[in-house]
Amino acid sequence: MNAKAKDFEASYQSNLNGIDSLKRGKLQKSIKDITNLLQGHSNVVWPKNKVSALDKSLNEIMRSLDGSNINDQKVFCHLGGLTALSRILLLWDISNIDKIEKTMSSK
Fold it and tell me: How many Cβ atoms are within 10 Å of 34's Cβ, its own excluded?
């Protein structure tokens, strides 16, 4: 899924030279915040402040992409938004695989 997101973003980068959005700054900040949160992650339970920061960033992205403005969506892809969202999903998947392996080995 992460590879598909990177391919999709790469295909749009050449077409986005003249496209801009009024919400570009908000999207860029939210994506940067998510990326920073994921860089310092380990396979332990996140503290409440990190969870609330992630929730705030995801809600800001939802509000920014709520309209039907295609330029906002293209800018989101160009800024690496799909990669950041894919990393969140992969993070959850990896932590569940570890739990499954632990329960299988204890049986």
Answer: 23
